[in-house]
Amino acid sequence: MEQWKNYLQTHRVLVMLSIVWFGTSLFLFNRVLEYIQNEPGIPFNDPAFALYQAKDLSLFIFILTYGSLITFLVVNRKQPHHYILCLQAYGWMVVLRAISVYLLPLAEPQEAIPLNDPVLNTFFYPGGYSPRDLFFSGHTGTIMLFAYLTDSKTIKILLYVIALFTGFLLVLQKVHYSIDVLAAPVLMVPVFAIIKAQRKIN
After folding, report:
1. Contact (CB, 8 A) for 30 and 126
2. Residue pair 177/116 in contact by the 8 Å Cβ criterion
3. What's the pTM?
4. Domain tally for the chain?
5. Rounded to an integer, what distance in angstroms lies between the CA atom of residue 69 and that of residue 3?
6. Counting beta carbons within 10 angstroms of the beta carbon of residue 104, is it exposed (0 to 12), middle (13 to 18) or buried (19 or more)?
7. Which of 24, 66, 94, 107 is the most buried (most CB within 10 A)?
């Protein structure tokens, strides 16, 4: 595509820095997860958990998460700057999550059914699935990020709905407390503010 060729020629340094930032943020997050795995977690009695038995909804969560990613990539395929902004913003979200997980290291929900996500468990977690990756929900925040960076109003609304529904499924599976999902929209606000500022710079 001509848009990509021109963008990569004029923004080569920005693209490289964005990739480095993305990788650095994941490295930092994994180090924090490794640390809190060996520390006692803060117990939390989620009142919602008393209302139901956990259900394994991994397949539906996987489809919604990566379906949202594919939707974002397809819809924004002619806007390379949205891809780069997404890398940058994802890095900021991961750093914010590293801070929140460190400051509020919640204990693993007792009845949690481990999330079966081969992509996440292979490439993002140190040593496989990490049950202490809780506050705040990365799935919810990531899909909200896709929504924020999408110009189409219809797709934007759809992705926001999917983000909330995915969060709901995570709570049903008890891999996240309800506060993890409810906090995500609030804690994504500073990430969106950074994106807005970076759009002006870029």
Report:
1. yes
2. no
3. 0.93
4. 1
5. 21
6. middle
7. 94
